[in-house]
Structures are given as structure tokens and as C-alpha cells.
Write a structure and sequence with these properties.
alpha/beta, 8 strands, four-stranded mixed sheet, 145 residues, 25% strand, single chain
Length: 145
């Protein structure tokens, strides 16, 4: 159990990140949740990762969020698994573009599923859940209540 001070620090980190994520191992789904601004922040994180030439080498990775358990990782093949989202940088950029295009067409409260278009043979699904704004990412974290 987190102390009140730790809960406050984690809430602040979620708010700084701008979106919430969680992994459901029962349904094998990664969920990225946010309003349009928050989902755009996720796209920016992916784009920033793919823009760094040091990340060209397989297994280079970056942990996101206050708990650091979602990883963006360079890998020879596209995959979504219990560790996170991986693929060649060009494919991760394509995924970010797909999410951005989906945002243009999506209504609030709509979900965008990406396994089929990004990594159809993956064990896990990647679900982008668009919420109405303003969205407080910290409010989704049950451990911070």
C-alpha cells in the first residue's frame, strides 16, 4: 500500500504523462486511456522514441509512466506482449500514425483496437480508449485513491 505522499507523487506523474495505461493479463489487453490531448501525448512518446537513432538496435527500450511497466521497445518484428509494444522503429511510427488517424475519426468514448493492424500474431491486444476531456489520468489508478 502506498503512503499518502507516494500516492500524491504517482498521481502527479500520471497527470504529467497525460494518459493512463494498464495491462489486463486475463483478457491479454494493454489499455491506453485518455482524452484527445492525452492520446496525442502517447503518440508523442512513441514518436520521440522512434526519432532517437540510438533506439535502432534491437531491445532498446523506454519505460513509460509512474510504474514503468509499459515498455516501448525496438524489435525485429511487431509484437504486443506482457512487456509492452515492440517493433522496428518504422513500424512503431506507422502505429503512431494509425492512432492519430483513428483519433480524427473517433468519437469520445470510442475504442481503437490495434493488434490486427499492427501485430496480428501477438498474444496481447492494444486498445486506445478515447474519453471526453478534460481527462484526469490519475483518476484511473485505483492504487492512488
Amino acid at each position: 500500500m502506498l503512503s499518502p505522499e507516494m500516492k500524491a507523487a504517482v498521481r502527479e506523474e500520471w497527470r504529467k504523462l497525460g494518459f493512463f495505461y494498464d495491462r489486463d493479463d486475463d483478457t491479454k489487453t494493454w489499455k491506453i486511456v485518455g482524452d484527445r490531448k492525452g492520446i496525442e501525448r502517447f503518440i508523442q512518446e512513441v514518436t520521440r522514441f522512434t526519432s532517437d537513432p540510438r533506439n535502432e538496435r534491437p531491445s532498446e527500450h523506454e519505460h513509460l509512466g509512474p510504474y514503468l511497466y509499459l515498455k516501448l521497445m525496438s524489435w525485429p518484428e511487431n509484437r504486443i506482449d506482457e512487456q509492452g509494444i515492440a517493433g522496428p522503429l518504422s513500424e512503431l511510427r506507422r502505429m503512431a500514425f494509425t492512432i492519430r488517424e483513428g483519433l480524427l475519426r473517433a468519437a469520445d468514448a470510442q475504442k481503437i483496437f490495434l493488434r490486427q493492424s499492427f501485430a496480428p500474431n501477438s498474444e496481447y491486444e492494444l486498445c486506445i480508449e478515447l474519453r471526453p476531456g478534460p481527462f484526469d489520468a490519475a483518476g484511473e489508478d485505483a492504487g492512488c485513491r
